[in-house]
Amino acid sequence: MRTTKDRVRQAVSFELIGILLSVPLAAFAFSFDLGKTGVLGVVGATLATLWNYVFNLLFDHGLKKLNGSTRKSLKIRFLHAISFELGLMMAFLPIIAWWMSISLLEALIVDLAFIAFYLVYAFVFTWCYDTVFPDADATVQRHPPQPNSVAYSRAETHQEQHTSKDR
After folding, report:
1. Are 44 and 99 in contact (CB under 8 A)?
2. What is the pTM of this model?
3. Cα–Cα distance for residue pair 150/154, rounded to 1 Å
4. Confidence at 69, pLDDT banded by 50, 70, 90
5. Which residue pairs, CB below 8 angstroms and at least 24 apart, start in 78-84?
6. What residues have CB less than 8 Å from 145, skipping those under 6 apart?
7. By CB atoms within 10 Å of each CB, which of 29, 51, 86, 140 scores lowest?
8. Which of 28-32, 64-68, 116-120, 146-150 bottoms out in mean pLDDT, i.e. has the lowest?
9. Burial bucket for residue 38 (CB in 10 Å: 0-12, 13-18, 19+)
10. What is the pLDDT at residue 165?
């Protein structure tokens, strides 16, 4: 599992890079004022950062409980990105409508554009982040631990627990 420090680094870097890419694109695509779009971007990034931390913590705990590891397959990465964005959309839609003084339907279109951008961005960013900063739990399956190592003891204990539960 990732440490709190690592999760904070991941969330903050994700949002900072996301703001730098998405705000100018949204202002241009929707003919919005760059300043007003920038404020919306910062509010959205703050909301998303908090959601990112909570969501990833819960997702990793669930993944570890189900699979014994936080390693993400391609299918799990798609599930991760889509479920993250749907949760964020529910919270961000009314904020967009209010701040930009547009209808909920117009806000939905703007939000769907953000979602399309962030689905691709989240997938690519998370994959890159996991490559640059690998999670120890995710690397155990790729590189089995050597006998007499702490990771080997943990894997062996996990296997024994799994075996005794299955009986």
Report:
1. no
2. 0.61
3. 6
4. confident
5. 78/123, 80/122, 80/126, 81/119, 81/122, 81/123, 81/126, 82/119, 83/55, 83/59, 84/51, 84/52, 84/55, 84/59, 84/122
6. 151, 152, 154, 155
7. 86
8. 146-150
9. middle
10. 52
CA 96 to chain CA centroid, nearest Å = 21
Tokens of 138: 């995710």
- Concatenated DSSP letters of 107-163: HHHHHHHHHHHHHHHHHHHHHHHHHHS--HHHHHHHSPPPTTSHHHHHHHHHHHHHH
Q: Is the pLDDT of residue 70 over 50?
A: yes
| Residue 159, pLDDT score | 53
Contact by Cβ (8 Å): 125, 17: yes
